[in-house]
Design goal:
Belongs to the eukaryotic RPA49/POLR1E RNA polymerase subunit family. It is found in: Nucleus, Nucleolus. It comes from Macaca nemestrina (Pig-tailed macaque). Pfam families: RNA_pol_I_A49. By secondary structure, this protein is of the alpha+beta class. About 35% of the residues lie in helices and about 25% in strands. The protein has helices at about 130-135, 135-140, 145-150, 155-165, 170-175, 180-200, 220-230, 245-260, 270-275, 280-290, 325-330; strands spanning about 10-15, 20-30, 40-45, 60-65, 70, 85-90, 95-100, 105, 205, 230-235, 235-240, 265, 290-300, 305-310. The strands form four sheets. It has a four-stranded antiparallel β-sheet, with no helix packed on it. Strands 3-4-5-8 form a four-stranded antiparallel β-sheet, with no helix packed on it. A hairpin with a 6-residue loop joins β1 (about 10-15) and β2 (about 20-30). The longest helix has 21 residues, at about 180-200.
C-alpha cells in the first residue's frame, strides 16, 4: 500500500499596514489537500520589533480535522531565501512571500493549551490558580449575570431539568450551592462562567460580535473571542473559528473551573457527556492536566448504577503524561 503523500506549502503573510488585520495565503503542492476549506491557521510573530533579524520571524500553525501542520521562515529548518522577495498591495492588505518553507504534519500536545500549571504548589488550589482563569475585573463582571444562579430555587432547577436548558454538571452544582452568602456568590459566578464556556464550545464559527447574546458582559465576550477562537480568513472575510485545538483548551478551562467548584474532585464522566467527548479524549486531557483517575459506582435513573471516572487534583502531582496520539505519531516518525 503506497504511503500517503502529504502536501508541502508556499505561504504568504498578509497584514494591514496599521497592523489591525492579519491573513495568510498558502499554496499547497506535492500532495492533495482533501478539504482546504476546513483548514484553520494561527500565525505567531516575534515580538522583538527592534531586532532586524527577528522582527520578520513568523511561525505558521495549521490544523485540519485529521492533522496539524507547522512551518516557520527562520532557523535551520527554513530554506535560505530572501524573505521579502515579493510584495504587493490588495484590498488594503500588504502581502509578501515568506519563502518555500517546511510545512509538515505536527501533533500538537494538549499541554500547549493548558493554563499555567504550578507543580511546586503546596496546596491543590495553587496548582491551577483561579486568577489565571478569571482576572479580578472579569470576576467582578460576573456578579450581574450570575444573579439568577445565586438566587435559584428548587422549582427553577426542576424547570431547567424539564426544559434541558443547562447541562448535567451545572444542574448538580446548583443543587448543592452553599448557604453561606460569600461562598454561594463565588460558586454561582464560577458555575455561570463554566456554563457559558460549555455553550460557547458547542459552536464552530462565531458569526456575531456578541458570542452568546446580549446577556454576556463585554469583558467576558472579549475574553471568549480572544482566548478561545482563532482568527481565520475565509471568502474575503475575517471570522472567529473555534478549532479542535481551541475546543481542547476550553475543555481544560472547564475542568479547572469544575475542580475549584467541587473541592478538586470531579465526575469526569458527567463532564464528558456535557462536552460531548469520547471517554478516551477526556482521559487524554485529564491526564495531561495531571489529574489522578479513579472509578466509582454512581446511581443513575431508575435506580440503576454505572461506573464513572473521577478526576482528583491532589499533591504530589503524578508525572506529566503525553497524549496517546502524540506518542504514537512520534513512534511512527
Amino acid at each position: 500500500m503506497a504511503a500517503e503523500v502529504l502536501p508541502s506549502a508556499r505561504w504568504q503573510y498578509c497584514g494591514a499596514p496599521d497592523g489591525s488585520q492579519r491573513a495568510v495565503l498558502v499554496q499547497f503542492s506535492n500532495g492533495k489537500l482533501q478539504s482546504p476549506g476546513n483548514m484553520r491557521f494561527t500565525l505567531y510573530e516575534n515580538k522583538d520589533s527592534t531586532n532586524p533579524r527577528k522582527r520578520n520571524q513568523r511561525i505558521l500553525a495549521a490544523e485540519t480535522d485529521r492533522l496539524s501542520y507547522v512551518g516557520n521562515n527562520f532557523g535551520t529548518g527554513a530554506l535560505k531565501c530572501n524573505t521579502l522577495c515579493r510584495s504587493f498591495t490588495y484590498a488594503q492588505m500588504e502581502c509578501w512571500d515568506l519563502g518555500l518553507d517546511s510545512f509538515l504534519p505536527l501533533a500538537e500536545d494538549d499541554s500547549l493549551y493548558l493554563p499555567p500549571c504550578y507543580d511546586d504548589a503546596t496546596k491543590p488550589e495553587d496548582v491551577y490558580k483561579f486568577e489565571d482563569l478569571l482576572s479580578p475585573a472579569e470576576y467582578e463582571a460576573l456578579q450581574s449575570p450570575s444573579e439568577a444562579f445565586r438566587n435559584v430555587t428548587s422549582e427553577e432547577i426542576l424547570k431547567m431539568i424539564e426544559e434541558n436548558s443547562h447541562c448535567t454538571f451545572v444542574i448538580e452544582a446548583l443543587k448543592s450551592l452553599p448557604s453561606d452568602v460569600e461562598s454561594r456568590d463565588r460558586q454561582a459566578r464560577c458555575i455561570w462562567f463554566l456554563d457559558t464556556l460549555i455553550k460557547f464550545r458547542a459552536q464552530r464559527v462565531v458569526k456575531r460580535k456578541s458570542a452568546l447574546g446580549p446577556g454576556v458582559p463585554h469583558i467576558i465576550n472579549t475574553k471568549l473571542l480572544k482566548h478561545f477562537t482563532c482568527l481565520t480568513y475565509n471568502n474575503g472575510r475575517l471570522r472567529n473559528l473555534i478549532s479542535d485545538s481551541m475546543k481542547a483548551k476550553i475543555t481544560a478551562y472547564v475542568i479547572i473551573l469544575a475542580l475549584h467548584i467541587h473541592d478538586f474532585q470531579i465526575d469526569l464522566t458527567m463532564l464528558q457527556g456535557d462536552l460531548k467527548l469520547s471517554e478516551k479524549r477526556m482521559m487524554e486531557i485529564a491526564k495531561a492536566m495531571r489529574l489522578k483517575i479513579s472509578k466509582r459506582r454512581v446511581s443513575v435513573a431508575a435506580g440503576s448504577e454505572e461506573d464513572h471516572k473521577l478526576g482528583t487534583l491532589s499533591l504530589p502531582l503524578p508525572p506529566a503524561q503525553t497524549s496517546d496520539r502524540l506518542a504514537k505519531r512520534r513512534k511512527i516518525t
